[in-house]
Amino acid sequence: MNYPIWLALEDFVPVLFGMAGFALLALQAPEPARRAGLIGALLIGLGGLSKCAWKLAVAAGWGNPRLLEELLFPLMAAGAAAVCWALAVTLRPSPPVPWWPFAAVVVVAAFGSAVLLSLQPLFVAATFGVTAISVLAAILAGRRRRYLSVALFSAGLILVMSLVPLRSSESHHTVAYQWLEQSLNTCAQAFLFVAALLIPVREKVGVSHD
After folding, report:
1. Which of 27, 24, 40, 123 is nearest to 84 (CA)?
2. Based on the number of CB atoms within 10 Å of its own CB, is 210 exposed (0-12), middle (13-18) or buried (19 or more)?
């Protein structure tokens, strides 16, 4: 489809909301999980920005750099795994939550994508990862008695899930549907950002996760 410039530019908004929200959640974790979570938030953001750059290039008539589009799910899967580990450590700082099961999910998904010559396994890993982030974040907010955050995380997750039937619609590639999808995604990521912002960061002593 032909993407309007404004549609392509708007796509940067949810990416920035999401990246900021994931970074705020990562700050809840002790070191070294905090650092890993921040790197994960950056990876998710870079994946989203890469997809946005592809969409902008197509909209502006600068060609079709498919590599930028295809970087989304590998970066998102890796980043989501890191943020999930950071949140898991936050929820259960002792005994330490090992990092390797989270990394293993990404490695298996990457191997599956390489064997199948398809991004589908990484898409599944990325989708599962960002969904798990919202669930873990809602649990954290509940423990901190930030019930508005719980509601916002839940609402954001519902909005994201509502995109699934839209993307399977025959009208998915129309400009009107693209605006609808992006608007819902923007609201979802804005909810996540505000929800994360409402959870105060508690300073923790760094712990080892060998």
Report:
1. 40
2. exposed
Tell the residue number behind the tokens 């989304």, with chain if given: 72
Please state, for a pLDDT cut of 90, what percent of the chain lies above it.
78
End-to-end Cα, the chain, rounded Å: 48
Question: Mean pLDDT, to the nearest integer, of 181-206?
Answer: 88
- Cα–Cα distances (Å) from 35 to 29, 47, 139, 155, in that order, read 8, 18, 21, 28
According to the model, what pLDDT value does residue 178 have? Answer: 86
CA–CA distances in Å: residue 75 to residues 45, 46, 126, 185: 8, 7, 8, 18
User: What's the pTM?
Assistant: 0.91
Helix (H, G, I), strand (E, B) or coil at 96: coil
**Can you tell me whether residue 180 is helix, strand or coil?**
helix
Alpha carbons 34 and 49: distance in angstroms, whole number: 22
